[in-house]
Amino acid sequence: MSNIPETGRTQRVQIRLIVIQVLVFSLLLTLGGRLWYLQIRNGQEYSDEAKNNHVQQVVQPAARGSILDARGVPLADNETRLVVSASRTDLMKMADDGKAVLTRLADVLDMKPKDVFDKVRLCDAKTPQPCWNGSPYQPIPVTDEATTQQALTIRERAEDFPGITAEPTAVRRYAAPGKANTAQVLGYLSPVTDEEITKAQDTDSPYLRSDMVGRSGLERTYDKELRGKAGVTRYEVDNLGRVIGQAKNDEAEAGSSVVTSIDARVQAVAEYELNDAMKKARQEFDTNTGENYKADSGAVVVMEAKTGRVVAMASLPNYDPNAWVGGISAKDYAKLTGKKSNFPLLNRAIQGQAAPGSIFKVISSTAAVNAGYPFDGHYPCPSSYSIGGQTFKNFESQGYGDITIGRALEVSCDTVYYGIAHKEWQKDGGNSPKKNPKDWFYKTAHQFGLGKETGIDLPNEVSGRVPDREWKKNFAKANHDAWCKQGKKDGTYVEKIAYENCLEGDKMRAGDSVNYSIGQGDTLVTPIQMATIYAAISNGGTLYDPTVGKAIVSGDGKTVQEIDPTSHGKLPFTRKTRNEIDEALAGVATRGSAAWRFGGWPQDKIPMHAKTGTAEVYGKQTTSWFATYTKDYSIVMTISQGGTGSGASGPAVRNIYNALYGLDATGKQDLKKALLPTPQKGLPKVQTDGTIDAPKIKPYDPASQKPPTEQTLAAVLGRRD
Q1: Residue 713: which pLDDT band, with cuts at 50, 70 and 90?
Q2: C-alpha 644 chain-centroid distance
Q3: Residue 664 vs residues 43, 528, 553, 674: alpha-carbon distances, Å
Q4: Antiparallel, parallel or unpaired: β 257-260 and 67-68
Q5: What is the sign, positive or negative, of the torsion defined by CA atoms of 140, 146, 148, 150?
Q6: What φ, ψ does residue 698 adopt, rounded to 5°?
Q7: Which of 359, 578, 609, 681 yields a CA-CA distance of 20 to 30 A from 475?
Q8: Global pTM?
C-alpha cells in the first residue's frame, strides 16, 4: 500500500511551494508599492524632473546698481566693454589642457602667455594672485579691454579658439568724477566663490555663478541691494539639444542704486589737500630724528555735525579700484599687497589706529570736571611735571603759570592734565588700587565712544583702544613671558621697559595715567572716532553712527528708501561744560595753538573751533592731528610721521573749509564759489525711467586756495600768547 498522496507531491515539496508562493507574492507586493510611490505618491515631482532634463536655462545677469554722490554724480556705475572669456571646463577636455588655445589667444590679445595662463588658473592656498577665485564652471574673463579687431578675430576663427568667447559685456566702472578717487569708500568687486554660493543658496538673496561680489567698501555693505536679480530664460529642447519652445522667462531686475552723502567736489578737495599736506610735510626737517618727515600715510574725514553723514573721506596711499575690474594683474596685485606697498587697500579713516595726542584733551577736560575739578578753576602749568625719578615735559617745555582748564585746552598745556590725572590716580589707591576705583579718565573715554566701533556703514572698522585696568591685566597676561625673557634692568630703553613690565606690567602705574591724560601711551583712536566726537561737541552732545549711504533707489526709480541718521549715545557732560569746552576750542582757533592757521577767518559769521594734536610714537616720527568743527561740519585730519598738528595738517584743513564755504585767505566769502555752505538736505531727482540727471563737476583747482598774506599772518601772530 503506497503513502504517496493523489497529487503526487510529498509534504516537503508542498512546503517549498508554499514558501515560493509567499516570496513571489511579497515581491509583487513590494513592486506594486514602489510603483504606487513613484507614480502616484511622488509622480508629479519626478514628472517635473523628467521635463527639466529637456529644459536648458540661459542666465541674463542683472545690471549692478550705481553708487552716486549726494547730487547724483556717479562714483561707480557700469559701461559696456568687449570682454574675452575662457571656459575652463572646455579647456580641461583638451589633451594639453588648452595651453595651445591660450597661447594663440595671448598672441591675438598682445599678452604674454604666462599672464593668460595665470588668469584662468584656480585660486587655492598655494596659488598667488592673479588667479580665478570664482566658480570653475563659470567663463573666466581674460581681459575686458579687447579691441573690436581682436574680438572679430576670435569670433571669425572660432575653430582656433574653442572655449573662448568675445562679446560686449557690462562691467564696473569707477568714474572718479572731478578726480575724486574715493577708492577705499567704494571698494571693489571679485567673482563669487563656490563656498559663498553654497552658503547663500537657501537665503532670500542666492548667488549665481556669474555674479560679482563686493569685497570692501560700499560695494560690500550694500552688495545685496546693488546686485539686483538675474533673469533666467528656460528653453525646451529635444534629445539633440535643439530648441523646440520657450518654457518660462523670469525677467532680470536691475540692482538698486545707492545714493551716498559723499559730495564728489568736496571729496576731490579733501583728497588733494591731504596729498598736498603730506608732500609738504616731506619737505620739512625733523630736528628730533635729523631727517625730513616721512609722512607715509594719512586720512581725513569731513562729516555733517548734526547728522553724522560723511561728506568726504580720504585715505592715503590709495589705489585705482578699476584695477580689479575683469580680474587683477599680477603687477597690480603686487603693488596693492606687497611689502613695499604700504597697504593702500586699508581705509585709514576707519582702520588706521594711532595715539591721538592733544585732540584727546576734550575727553580729559570732561573727565576732570566730572571728577570735581571746576572748569574755570586755576591749575599750575609748569614746563614739566615730575613723578618719582621721571620727568614729563610740556610740549616745547613752555609754562603758563596758573591757568584754567579752558586755557589749558587753548594752549595745549600738558602739565595741567598731568597734575589732575596724577591726583585721581592717587585717590584711586595708586599702586594698591581700591576695590572699585573711580577711574574717571578711563570711564569718560568709554562714554565718548572710544574702545568700540562707531557703527559706520563700511566693513572692517576697527575699535581703537582704551588702555584701562582690564586691558592692562589682559595685555600683561599675554605678554608676561616675553617681557621677562627680553627685559634687562640696565639694558636699552626697550629692555628696561620690558624689565619693568615683567615685574609689574599688570599694574596701572602713575606714569601710565599721566601719559594717558594727554592721549599718549597705549591709547589708540581712529579718525572716524574723533570726527564723530567733535561733531557731537558741535551739535550739543549727540553721538551719531557715521553713515555714507543716504538712500536706496530701486532700479526703476519707483521706490526710494532713505537711510536716517541714528544715534548711539550722548556725551557725558552738562550743557554748561559743553559750552565751556566749545568756547575754549573757539579760543584755540583765535588765540591758541591753531590761531596762526586761521588768520582772517570770519569768526563772527562762521565760528571755528579747533584742537591741535602732536602724538609721539616710539621709534617713529610724531603723528600730526588736527580736529575741528563749525556748526555745520566736523573735519579731522591725521598724517602719520607728519610732524605737528597745526604745522602739517592745519593748512590743508583750512583749505577744505575755504572750499566748503567759498572763502578766500582773508575770510571774504563768495557763495558762488562755495561748494557746500550748508549740508545737502534733499536727494537727487529721480527720472521716471529710474535714471538721475547728474550735474557735471570740474576738477578741483588748488590755485584758488591762496595762502594768507604776510600782513594777515603778522596780525594773527601778534595776538598769540
Answers
A1: very low
A2: 26
A3: 81, 28, 38, 10
A4: parallel
A5: negative
A6: -100, 150
A7: 359
A8: 0.84
